[in-house]
Amino acid sequence: MISRRDFLQAGVAASAILGGGVWTKVAAQQALTQDQLLEFDPLGNVTLIHITDIHAQLKPVYFREPSINLGVGEVNGLPPHVTGADFLKLFNMQPGTPEAYALTSEDFTSLAKGYGKMGGIDRCATVINAIRAERPEALLLDGGDTWQGSYTAEMTKGQDMVNVMNALKPDAMTAHWEFTFGKDRVDELIDELPFAFLGANIFDNEWDEPAYEPYKFFEQNGVKIAVIGQAFPYLPIANPRYMFETMSFGIREERVAEMVEEVREEGADLVVLLSHNGFDVDRKLAGRVDGIDVILTGHTHDALPEPLLVNDTLLIASGSNGKFISRLDLDVQNGEMKGFRHKLIPIFSDVIASDPAITALIDEQRAPHEDQLREVLGQTGSLLYRRGNFNGTWDDLICNALIEEREADIALSPGFRWGPSLLPGQDITREDLFNAVGMSYPKAYRSEMTGEFLHTILEDVADNLFNPDPYYQQGGDMVRVGGMGYSIDVTKPQGSRITNMTHLKTGDAIDPQKTYVVSGWASVNEATEGPPIWDVVESHIKRHGTVTVDPNKSVKVTGA
Amino acid sequence: MKLTRRDALLLTAGAAITASLPLPALAATPEDIDADIAAFTGGADVKEGGVEITAPEIAENGNTVPVEVSAPGATSILLLAAGNPNPGVATFNFGPLSAASEAKTRIRLAGTQDLIAVAKMADGSFAMSKRSVKVTIGGCGG
Predict the structure, then answer these.
(1) Rounded to whole angstroms, how far apart are CA atoms A6 and A4?
(2) CB spacing of A414 vs B2 below 8 angstroms
(3) I want to staple B141 with a disulfide (CB 3.0 to 4.6 A). Which of A194, A474, B41, B70 is the partner?
(4) Least CA distance to B142: which residue of chain A?
(5) Do A250 and B140 touch (CB under 8 A)?
(6) Do residue B14 and residue A418 have CB atoms under 8 angstroms apart?
(7) Of the candidates A161, A118, A122, A129, which has an alpha carbon nearest to the alpha carbon of residue A357?
(8) What interface predicted TM-score (ipTM) does this complex get?
(9) pTM of structure
(10) Co-location of A248 and A330 in the same domain
(11) Domain edge (last residue) among A313, A337, A364
């Protein structure tokens, strides 16, 4: 665990980091105003506005940050692999404050009741407009995972998000889940974008040629800015390849270096990588590719109140689900970044006014679906959340549903990082359910697997998360398991991390030779059969009326 | 429904992963690899590094993985897939008129493994590099 001092030493200039100061003031007053949240002493000649991983959350949500977010190898204990009380200590925050609520899972339910929901694209619009009023040429950059993650996004195949985001007038975006609507749909929607869709690492896999624009130049107060796009590198592995089968992705570090060189030769004063690599991948990339001034990170949903500086590159982490917008002011002189000022602006939805035009536009997208969205399926007696390296309560509920509704011994639910939270006592509407499961390959399979094969799956997924080399990580969380417990030592190599697999119903050890009935969803295989996961969970919730999820103690974690 | 191991693999992850679980008995042994390298070098000393291998960190499709090898000044490059039943992939020879000593191909990988490239330089010396390519079930990215 590094000290705050070590962390701050990474800054270009100690005086440039003022984000924390504003928050401390807010904390002291225990009262929030829009002016405080937006307060920013402008610096230099360039302003970047970053939002990422909205996951189609047009309306404000509760979103609990992880209580466990382990880093292995060199990044063990480094941000963003710091949670809870350690996080508060590292960033000099007090428990119970708005920033503690926004950035950690500590005392989440009671703070959520006090501080309310966060996000809402109409609130984001207010923040963006306020920054633009001060800095008319500010660039708005969207890190992707924008079009997927809600009922309306799934029903309209991303159209609702494109309609609303276009009104925010971004300057560029990159992508990940967008491609799960299929390449044709992505191309169709790109035609409707009045801004750039960038992906330097997206290639046609037959001819190995670039498939999308790699970068775009902008100018701000005479500063030439190159924004290079980097889509999620592992789309064909983490998501169904058949949906975009002519495409190849990958980190392609040498391609990034080549693009940086190219834009510098074309006269870029400032090089920005708009990335969906995930934080640890970007941290490694920043250390190996020279000449990138700023990486706007995404994918792993981390929210950091201060930038991290690696090899003269600023790494910005702006959270997810519309909870935060990062503002980064830079002083660029003669092609060099001389100073910066940054603020991770928390979008408290009860404090920041909504932009009426955007509210109306959002309502318009939702109007045809209102009856479906509003239908109450049941109530939750527990806090439902997903984010965290191991089972969250949303996935425990999904696994319970799979086991009961599909008569399975064991259930598997993918380690996605999207999906907002619900507080105990809240209604579960169809909208809430789709916020947790809305996607384009929802079929809930039921099959038989041997104990040995289950072990192989767990080992494989664990390596995607805990491989000590970030370039071999895919950026999701661990697959969530119902009906089976296990122990995991995150420091071991693939093949020996997972032990003590136990069938919870009988208490017996999982027999490698025996077959078990396993139900899961979100298979990347085209031939998967079964009802959509939302039907399975809906019937489970309706049957129980009120669902409660017991604390899950079946995963024992060591080595962290 | 009783599934075989093969069906189960297909069910959960798609065709690519059938390649990810080779029967251990079929994979080449370190001795096989050493023998292949010795046959190429004639037993000469091999310097670590100096050959660039470009390949994805994680294969998008284990059945067709793009691989590029490059070693400026090499007259010949041996490419091995150390974890395949038959590790020999290719030996690329570069004549005096070759513009560059680099070659690109696509190969099938039976599972997570090292790619090994050994280059014979014009002065008769040898250089060798390795690169790990992971073949994974996938399906849980974030």
Answers:
(1) 5
(2) no
(3) A474
(4) A476
(5) no
(6) no
(7) A122
(8) 0.87
(9) 0.92
(10) yes
(11) A364
